[in-house]
């Protein structure tokens, strides 16, 4: 088992799966990530800019696409930012659909 440094863990139900993938925030890497069965299923990354975050990339591994992983990552990041009062912008086209 991998040793992970994480400050927050989110559990959010995916509409397309009966399991609840764990979304982990890795602040030192500026990303939120989902691992499934020990594999990196996807991540969303951000840069810190003017006291807020710019969401700059969302990626889902091919084997995990079409399962709602990207949407789950955006939702977890937005939830965390809201609770911490962090303003968001999105240079990532996918994330920009939700962050506005």
Structural commentary:
- The N terminus is likely disordered.
- Strands 1-2-3-4-5-6 form a six-stranded mixed β-sheet.
- It has one domain: Gcn5-related N-acetyltransferase (GNAT) (Aminopeptidase), CATH 3.40.630.
- The chain has 100 residues and is an alpha+beta fold.
- 19% of the residues lie in helices and 38% in strands.
Order of helical and strand elements? EEEEEHEH
Tell me the number of helical segments per DSSP (H or I, 4 or more residues long).
Answer: 2
Give the name of the CATH architecture.
3-Layer(aba) Sandwich
Please report the first level of CATH classification, the CATH class. Answer: Alpha Beta
Tell me the overall shape. Answer: globular
Low-confidence stretches: 1-17
Number of domain units: 1
Give me a quick take on this structure.
The chain has 100 residues and is of the alpha+beta class.
What is the topology?
Blueprint: E1 8-11, E2 22-26, E3 31-36, E4 39-49, E5 52-60, H1 69-83, E6 88-90, H2 93-96
Parallel strand pairs: 5-6
Antiparallel strand pairs: 1-2, 2-3, 3-4, 4-5
């Amino acid at each position: 088992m991998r040793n992970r440094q994480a400050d927050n863990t989110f559990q959010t139900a995916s509409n397309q799966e009966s399991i609840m993938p764990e979304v982990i925030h890795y602040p030192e890497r500026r990303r939120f990530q989902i691992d499934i069965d020990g594999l990196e299923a996807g991540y969303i990354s951000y840069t810190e800019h003017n006291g807020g975050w710019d969401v700059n990339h969302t990626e889902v591994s091919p084997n995990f696409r079409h399962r709602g992983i990207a949407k789950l990552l955006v939702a977890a990041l937005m939830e965390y930012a809201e609770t911490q009062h962090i303003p968001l912008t999105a240079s990532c086209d996918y994330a920009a659909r939700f962050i506005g």
